[in-house]
Amino acid sequence: MNRARLSVLVVFFVNGAVFANWAPRIPEIQNALSIDVATLGLALTGVGLGGLAAAPLAASLVRRFGSRWAILASGLLLCSSFVLPAVAVSWWTLLAALVLLGGADSVMDISMNAQGVLVEERLGRSVLSSFHAAWSVGAVVGGVTGAAAAGIRMPVAAHFGLVAVVLGAVLAAVGRGLLGPEPVAPTSDVDRDVPQLVVRPTAALAMLGVVVLLAGLMEDFPQSWSAVYMTTEEGAGPGSAGIAFVAFSAAMLIGRLVGDRIVDRFGPSAVLTGGASVVAVAFLVILGLSSLYADLPVLVIAAFALAGLGSSPLFPVVFSLAGRLPGMSSAAAISVVSLVSRIGFLLAPLAVGRVVDASGFGPVLAAIAAAGVVVAVIGWCYGRRFPIDTDQSRDRR
Questions:
Q1: 235 or 154: whose pLDDT is higher?
Q2: CATH homologous superfamily of domain 2-177+201-395?
Q3: Which terminal Cβ of the chain has fewer Cβ within 10 Å, N or C?
Q4: Do residues 205 and 337 lie in contact, with contact meaning Cβ atoms separated by under 8 Å?
């Protein structure tokens, strides 16, 4: 089981490192294609489009072949196609490349979380946050690598090609350590009459869906727009523009390293409420700095770090709760939650690009702060509405 846990940690690391290398190079790709922020936002919706299209298939793939093979197939596709955005010649070829990447990432995301829940259940304690911490380690390493590559003016195609080879080899090396196919027998008499891709809607699943929908907005902005924000609003250069994303990812890593203990101590609903509240405060700080002061990049970076700390438990807690909902297979419930999150990642770049082009970053920052408040309220309501489910989840860990 230790080998399986280590393998899953590496898988999460690889997934986090791929797109983190992409984030610091976005301004250069935008300049190379000579597109404005609205068009860039349209192209960035490719990640969400691909993820949205692929998410319904992921549960079926996991159920038929097991999460191990779904992880390897989607992960190797993600790595091998990572170079495509670097060789895009127009906004629509960039869009097409990101659709492919988003689809591969979606299947990998669902399958690696299903594998993580499987490992967590066999260990009998909470470990999913540590897996997401490994994702954050990958994001930090990838963000630093991407920022360094931008700083030394390394060609984007060469940078992305090197990342694809290295991370693809790492993923292939740990494949044998992943757990084999999960049992496919229905979990209840109800499930025998319901196709696994069709999950009966419940209030709990709906609430979790809203959380990941808004959490997608909270995480997409630092990933997709922080470098652009630092360049246009703070006057950062190519090498330093990616530092805000690195700070966000590093703080997220710290939060996830202690996340399992915090969830076991306070419960998932309280962690959702506290984390989302911190995100709201962080983006209000960024909004205040952008409105009242100028040329304070250090404080802005610190606020992004605070946002990363608050965001750190949101996705691990939701995936863990979804994977334990009664009457639903883990892969099916996680696929629904992931599908909703992909809608958030689809809408966020398009909306941000349009709003920034029309009104600047102020309204976007205010909207993300408001999203944090909404998630905080949902977390509080979830704990009151489903106290038995919350307690059972904690006891099973």
A1: 154
A2: MFS general substrate transporter like domains (1.20.1250.20)
A3: N
A4: yes
